[in-house]
Amino acid sequence: MVYNRGMRKAEWKTSGNAVYNTGYHFVWSVKYRRQVLRAPIDQTVKEILAEICQEKGVQLLGMEDMPDHIHIFVSARPRISPAEMARFLRGSSARYLFQRHPELKRWLWGGHLWNPSDYV
């Protein structure tokens, strides 16, 4: 086994049968690149994503939003795949955001907040 001297043992996390230190950087853009992530919607999306991460046991390490896209950096157990994380973060955040800000439906018809593609 190769030991990475740059990674401190304090940074390691453990679960029942794994030792890990994962980090995923996701980038999602708003459907049609609409610039809707402005005040107060930008603050709401941050709160929603933080709540979802806490519910799902995903550690939120950082987040930054732009008017037409969002960057989120998270860490999770290896049993949660990046595709699964993207699915529940994007899906739940869109549902809750449309509930809290129904005015979004004027700019984003069809009930889709995020573009179907993402960056990991």
Helix/strand-derived category reads: alpha+beta
Outline the low-pLDDT stretches: none
Globally, the shape reads: elongated
Q: What's the helical proportion of residues?
A: 25-40%
Mean pLDDT: 90
Radius of gyration (Å): 16 Å
The total of helices stands at 3
Looking across the biggest beta sheet, what order are the strands in?
4-5-3-6
Task: Give the N-to-C terminal Cα separation.
Answer: 27 Å
Largest sheet: 4 strands, antiparallel
Total number of β-strand segments? 6
Percentage beta strand = 25-35%
Order of helix and strand elements from N to C terminus: EEEHEEHHE
Explain what the structure shows.
- The structure is a single chain.
- This protein starts with 12 loop residues before the first strand and ends with a strand.
- It is built from 3 helices and 6 strands; from the N terminus they run βββαββααβ.
- Strands 4-5-3-6 form a 4-stranded antiparallel sheet, with helices on one face. A two-stranded antiparallel sheet has the order 1-2.
- It has helices at residues 41-56, 82-100, 104-107, and strands at 13-15, 18-20, 24-30, 59-66, 69-75, 114-119.
- A hairpin with a 2-residue loop joins strand 4 (59-66) and strand 5.
- It has 120 residues and is an alpha+beta fold.
- It is elongated, with a radius of gyration of 16 Å.
